[in-house]
Amino acid sequence: MLHIQKNMFTFAKAFLYLPQHAITAYVANKKSISNVKKRNPVKMKEKELEFSDVPNNFLWCIDRQCPKSGTCLRQVAERLAPTDLVQYSIVSPKHIASLGGECPYYCSSTKVQYAKGFLGILENLTAKQVRFFAQRLISNSSRRTYYRVRSGERALSPAEQESILNVLKECGITAPMKFDSYYYDYLWT
Question: 29 vs 16, 24, 36, CA distance in Å?
Fold first, then answer.
């Protein structure tokens, strides 16, 4: 928070040295930009799933009679496959038939929320809490993974987010914490 206030002070100090016509033009430009943003919000079209989105090691399902085939990513991946594809990995239909009941390989085609980075969370912790938090996360994965996740280079699945929030609870943090950014994508498990 102090960092933000310092930047705002520097920004305000810079305005003292600008001529009045430059400040007026800047303020008018900011108002017109903010009005455009309010009047014309940009709606991004959601990208359709393509075969190139399917991970190479993802198991497919060829059982089109399955009651969940319409919402299973394994079935969707099989349907997206090009006709010239020679081989791919599938879950054995005989194995699935022998299981009976719920399919343990079902993979929902609903997008889930991934998180990136937790530098903002670390700013709200004491030095002692940061050390405990970092040690726990490094012991659960590796030092390299910790730093990649911390900076947002590697995204966190919903289960990983929950794990990190549980470590924060162990640190004594009771207030809800937010990761640096979020996005939605398929959970390819």
Answer: 18, 8, 11
